[in-house]
Design goal:
Order of helices and strands: HHHHHHHEEHHHHH
Oligomer: single chain
Distance between the termini: 34 Å
Mean pLDDT: 80
Radius of gyration: 19 Å
CATH topology of the largest domain: Butyryl-CoA Dehydrogenase, subunit A, domain 3
Largest sheet: 2 strands, antiparallel
Low-confidence stretches: 157-167, 175-186, 253-257
Number of domains: 2
Shape: elongated
CATH architecture of the largest domain: Up-down Bundle
Helix content: 55-70%
C-alpha cells in the first residue's frame, strides 16, 4: 500500500466513505490494464482486451472491498492476483477454449506424466513426439494449439474442506505476497511443496520461464528478450512447463483440473 493512499484507505475502511472507495478504484485502475495486456499477449485473438478489462474491474473492486489495510501486505500484489482471477473466471464463463483443444491438452499432459514417470526424468521433445506417434514438426504444431489453454492452467482451484470460501488458486501459491493465510491449511502447504519440487525438476530453460513469468511478472515477449529467444519459442517452453506441472499436481487427489 502506497503511503500517499493511507488516508484514503482509512476514509473508506473505517468511515465507509464511498468517494474514498471511488478514489481507490481510480488510483489502482492501471493494475487492471497491466494484467489485461499481459494476459492478452498470450491468448487467442478472439479474446478482446476490453473484455478482460471489464472482468478485471470487478476483480479490483472486490479486492478493494476485501483488503485489510491494517495488515502489512502490499495492496498491488494482493489485487493483481484477484484481478487476474476475475479475468480467468470471465474467460471460463465464455467457454472460449474449444473442446478439441482441451482434449489435446489433456492427452499431452497425460503423455508427459506417464512418460516422465517411466523415465524418472523430464522427457525430451523427441521422446514425447515418439510416444504420441507424431513427428517433431507435428509436436510443435500441437504445442502451439494448446498454448492458450495452458496460460490459465495454474489458476485452477484447490478446494478446501470447508466449502467454497476456503478455495485457493494454485497461482496464489506461486506469488510471494506474504499472505500467510494462504498457507494456513496443511493441504495448501503440501501443494506448495509439491509445486516447488515439480518446478525444480523442470528442464533449466522451462524453469527460468516459469520463474520470470510467475515470479517476476514478465510477459513472454519480455522473457524472450532476456533469454535471446523468439516469443514463439518462449511460449513453447511455457506450454511444456505447465503441462509437466499439471501432471505432477494432478497426482494430488483433491486437485481440480
Amino acid at each position: 500500500m502506497k503511503t500517499d493512499m493511507g488516508v484514503t484507505w482509512v476514509q473508506y475502511k473505517e468511515k465507509n466513505d464511498i468517494e474514498a472507495r471511488d478514489d481507490l478504484i481510480i488510483h489502482y485502475a492501471h493494475l487492471v490494464k497491466y494484467v489485461a495486456n499481459r494476459l492478452a499477449i498470450n491468448l487467442s485473438s478472439v479474446v478482446e482486451v476490453d473484455e478482460l478489462i471489464s472482468y478485471g474491474i470487478e476483480g479490483l473492486i472486490d479486492a478493494i472491498e476485501k483488503f485489510d489495510h491494517k495488515r502489512n501486505i502490499k495492496f498491488e500484489t494482493y489485487a493483481i492476483t484477484r484481478i487476474r482471477g476475475a479475468m480467468i473466471d470471465g474467460l471460463r464463463a465464455m467457454d472460449w477454449v474449444p473442446v478439441s483443444v482441451r482434449q489435446k491438452s489433456k492427452e499431452l499432459e497425460k503423455t508427459y506424466t506417464v512418460l516422465e514417470s517411466r523415465l524418472g526424468r523430464a522427457a525430451t521433445d523427441t521422446e514425447v513426439s515418439q510416444e504420441l506417434g507424431i513427428s517433431i514438426n507435428e509436436f510443435s504444431v500441437l504445442l502451439r494449439e494448446v498454448a492458450a489453454n495452458t496460460i490459465i492452467s495454474l489458476d485452477d482451484f484447490i478446494p478446501g474442506d470447508d466449502g467454497d470460501d476456503k478455495k485457493k488458486r494454485i497461482v496464489d501459491l506461486l506469488e510471494d505476497h506474504n499472505a500467510s493465510d494462504a498457507l494456513e491449511l496443511l493441504e495448501l502447504g503440501e501443494v506448495k511443496d509439491l509445486l516447488t519440487r515439480s518446478i525444480e525438476r523442470l528442464p533449466e530453460k522451462e524453469k527460468t520461464v516459469v520463474h520470470l513469468y510467475y515470479y517476476e511478472g514478465l510477459t513472454l515477449k519480455e522473457i524472450g528478450l532476456v533469454l535471446s529467444l523468439s516469443e514463439s519459442r518462449i511460449s513453447q517452453l511455457h506450454t511444456k512447463a505447465i503441462l509437466r506441472l499439471r501432471g505432477s499436481l494432478s497426482k494430488k487427489k483433491n486437485l481440480v483440473i
